[in-house]
Design goal:
single chain, about 30% strand, eight-stranded mixed barrel
Length: about 160
């Protein structure tokens, strides 16, 4: 199962969530984890942040693109990432939603083709091989999830 650090959190919610430099540090120390980050596009420029554009996007993050899951916080972010032609953006995973349910995740491969899986929100009965968002407590493993997104990935790894 893929373990995804929610906004770069490792052992619970962190004041540095979505900080690109902290995420790169954690990615270097924890090569078995993936990372979900909140991304915005404002006036043609990318930013990270949960409730709004907070941190300038650092393209160094794309060095771990196969391990990144971009939660597009506005439609401009979704549209612009889908149109990115640079090889740096290949293998990035990105999704957008306006309701907490089951969002498709678009995944660009090295040939710049796009395919998808699902990002499923907590407490939903959505039988999927996608990724479930699970922020606290043990997850009932009755479904064959591809991954889990959590604020406590270290705890999950040790289960």
């Amino acid at each position: 199962m893929i373990i995804i650090s929610h906004r770069g959190n490792i052992n619970g919610v962190d004041i540095y969530e979505n900080n690109p430099y902290k995420i790169l540090e954690k990615a270097a120390l924890l090569p078995d984890f993936h990372f979900e980050v909140d991304i915005w596009n404002h006036n043609g420029k990318y930013f990270l942040g949960h409730n709004g554009p907070l941190f300038d996007f650092d393209e160094k993050l794309l060095s771990i693109a196969p391990r990144l899951w971009f939660h597009c916080k506005n439609l401009d972010a979704l549209r612009s990432i889908a149109k990115e032609k640079s090889k740096k953006w290949r293998w990035c995973k990105f999704f957008f939603h306006n309701q907490d349910y089951c969002a498709p995740v678009l995944i660009k491969n090295p040939e710049n083709n796009i395919y998808f899986t699902y990002w499923v929100y907590p407490n939903l009965d959505c039988k999927s091989d996608g990724v479930i968002v699970h922020l606290d407590g043990p997850l009932h493993k009755k479904y064959n999830w591809m991954g889990v997104c959590t604020d406590n990935p270290v705890q999950w790894r040790n289960l």
